[in-house]
From TrEMBL:
Needed co-factor(s): Mg(2+)
Sorted UniProt keywords: Magnesium, Metal-binding, Transferase
Name of the protein this chain belongs to: Polyprenyl synthetase family protein
Provenance organism: Cryobacterium shii
Domain of life: Bacteria
A biological process from GO: isoprenoid biosynthetic process
UniProt record similarity statement: Belongs to the FPP/GGPP synthase family.
InterPro entries, per the entry: Isoprenoid_synthase_dom_sf (IPR008949), Polyprenyl_synt (IPR000092), Polyprenyl_synt_CS (IPR033749)
Gene3D superfamilies in alphabetical order: Farnesyl Diphosphate Synthase
Coiled-coil regions listed in the entry: none
Length: 373
């Protein structure tokens, strides 16, 4: 735990230092652009830093840490960590960009218990009495903030790649980052597609289509890609990267399945989002696919009629939650989470990853899949 906290502190520091270098570039254009930096800081100040941790342990698994190959010894000094800390920080900035855009797409008013980016810009518009629609301004400004963060994540990654042990390692890490960026964008499109196209798809395909969204929108970029980027940056060979992929993908699926449960049943004080938010947004998740399969026709029609209604009342949310639970879908998701975690852990057996790092990855697997409601 102390080692993870130390690493998180280093990532925080790297992000802060990076933003300090970008602030004068932005504000020299106009002081009106100060909110872009201020809101960036706000969205980058919190979070559990799971992606940064997976990136670090992917790097450490190759043996670039202070204690030798895969030992998982205490965190080396920041100078020796420069490449992976920059890469880990770049992943966190990329994640922030994705959240800003995701909140726009989902019309989410909150993020981590506070106002989402477009709501912050709406507030600026209202407070200053500007012309036009505050909603249009908020949406447009937040899109640009997300774009800015995407560009910055690329710049910070490049700074880390300059510190890679050799050009081949840097090129491999860049390739993995680029692939991640493409996959998560494709996954986001598939997510919004399923919210609208599900009605025209064969019932038998809805589960697989929902699982495909999980894989590309979340599982790869939340767990698998950070692990592989970190390891590639350290010069890992193909067998080593394949072992991390085999661990990271099923764990990433389990991570998102847990998140889907939280999106329906989560306590707002824990998740930072209103309870049942995914129901209001109409998310066609694996949970919903399983619930629909098990429901009688009348229950399925009722679920379909209410899912995606942004004005759902708490009583309606409670009824939907009860119907989903009664269908057995929650138990089925818990079984899927357990089986995917078991698959991930099995992938570590006999792998080239050392015992100490394996232990850290097992701990992380527990942490990211056992989050409470």
């Amino acid at each position: 735990m102390a080692e993870s906290n130390q690493l998180i502190d280093l990532v925080h520091s790297r992000i802060d230092d990076f933003l300090k270098t970008r602030q004068p570039i932005v504000t020299s254009i106009s002081p009106d652009l100060t909110p872009l930096v201020d809101f960036s800081r706000q969205f980058l100040s919190g979070g559990k830093r799971f992606r940064a941790l997976f990136c670090y342990w992917g790097w450490q698994s190759v043996g670039t840490g202070a204690g030798g190959p895969g030992t998982g010894a205490s965190v080396p000094d920041e100078g020796r960590l420069g490449a992976v800390i920059s890469a880990a920080a770049a992943l966190e900035i990329f994640h922030a960009a994705a959240l800003v855009h995701d909140d726009i797409i989902d019309n989410s008013d909150t993020r981590r218990g506070a106002a989402s980016a477009h709501k912050l810009f709406e507030g600026m518009h209202s407070d200053n009495g500007w012309a036009g629609s505050r909603f249009e301004f908020g949406r447009a400004a937040a899109i640009l903030l997300g774009d800015l963060l995407l560009g910055w994540s690329d710049e910070l990654l490049d700074e880390g790649l300059e510190l890679a042990p050799d050009s081949s390692a840097a090129r491999n890490a860049r390739d993995e980052f680029n692939r991640m960026r493409t996959e998560v964008t494709a996954g986001q499109y598939l997510d919004i597609l399923e919210e609208r196209a599900w009605l025209t798809q064969p019932e038998a395909e809805l589960f697989d289509r929902a699982l495909r969204v999980i894989v590309f929108k979340s599982a790869k970029y939340s767990v698998q890609a950070p692990l592989v980027i970190g390891a590639a940056l350290a010069g890992a060979g193909r067998d080593h990267l394949d072992a991390l992929r085999a661990f990271g993908l099923p764990l990433g699926i389990a991570f998102q399945l847990r998140d889907d449960l939280l999106g329906v049943f989560g306590d707002a004080s824990v998740t930072g989002k209103p309870s049942g938010d995914d129901l209001r947004e109409g998310k066609r998740t694996v949970l919903i696919a399983l619930a629909r399969e098990a429901m009688p026709d009348a229950g399925r029609r009722h679920l379909d009629a209410l899912l995606g209604d942004s004005l759902l009342e708490p009583a309606q949310i409670a009824l939907l939650q009860a119907a989903i639970t009664d269908s057995g879908a929650v138990e089925a998701i818990e079984d899927l989470i357990a089986s995917h975690v078991a698959e991930a852990l099995a992938a570590l057996e006999g792998s080239p990853i050392g015992a100490e790092v394996t232990g850290r990855l097992v701990e992380l697997a527990e942490t990211v899949t056992r989050r409470a409601f």
